[in-house]
Design brief:
31% strand, 2 helices, Immunoglobulin-like, five-stranded mixed β-sheet, 26% helix
Length: 223
């Protein structure tokens, strides 16, 4: 019985040694393969250039650059008979709007002869544009006429005017007791604009005024 027990122990010991040798051999082979793969990757990495240059040409030293060569190259690009800056001939053309604003009125100018009664003048305005416009009477351009009379323009709000149609503007002058100026020349300002457009056109209707209640101002005893 003791013999069989010793034999079993020897046999089990031999089997353990064989398994241990195989395990060590497999571990060494795997480690060797991993080291070979690492060396292959490192070789591939070292095969690439260490620095990639964007400009492979050789750098030129600044001392080797001649100023004469630069001047000659500029002269070849810009001959002496051609100026460096070319100015356009003639006056620059004025910008042309996409939808120009044009109106017509009658009479061509308004004439007032102011005495003691108020005077009202009517102005007809036509829309000569191919689009609908809005008109607005903005009042007098010069304030000299207010010395001899007070002025009011109607309508005070803007109004719509279709193409080819006409509208009415009224100017009323209320005389004062006396006028320090005998005559006055000013303009009646009319603004026109298309719908949804930010650009406004201003037109001036000439107005001539004669004050019959003119009184020459007193300038002193020296006169």
């Amino acid at each position: 019985m003791v013999y069989f027990t010793n034999l079993f122990n020897i046999f089990s010991y031999e089997i353990f040694n064989i398994l241990l040798q195989r395990f060590c051999l497999n571990t060494f082979v795997e480690h060797d393969m991993a080291s070979k793969s690492d060396t292959n990757e490192s070789d591939q990495r070292t095969a690439l250039p260490p620095i990639v240059k964007s400009n492979p040409r050789e750098k030129i030293d600044e001392n080797n650059i001649s100023v004469k060569d630069i001047i000659l190259a500029r002269k070849e690009k810009n001959p002496a008979n051609e100026p460096w800056i070319q100015f356009p001939s003639g006056k620059p053309s004025s910008p042309i709007p996409l939808h120009p604003l044009t109106i017509a009125w009658s009479p061509n100018k308004l004439y007032f002869e102011i005495d003691e009664k108020e005077v009202i003048r009517q102005l007809w305005v036509w829309n000569s544009c191919p689009r609908t416009i809005y008109l607005h009477c903005c009042g007098l351009w010069d304030e000299t006429a207010r010395l001899g009379a007070s002025w009011k323009c109607y309508p005070r709000t803007r109004f719509r005017l279709a193409p080819g149609l006409k509208g009415e503007l009224f100017v009323r002058a209320i005389p004062r007791n006396q006028s320090p100026v005998p005559y006055s020349f000013f303009g009646l300002q009319v603004a026109a604009a298309h719908m949804r457009d930010c650009v406004t056109g201003h037109f001036i209707v000439p107005v001539h005024v004669k004050f019959l209640k003119y009184v020459s101002p007193y300038l002193g005893e020296g006169e």
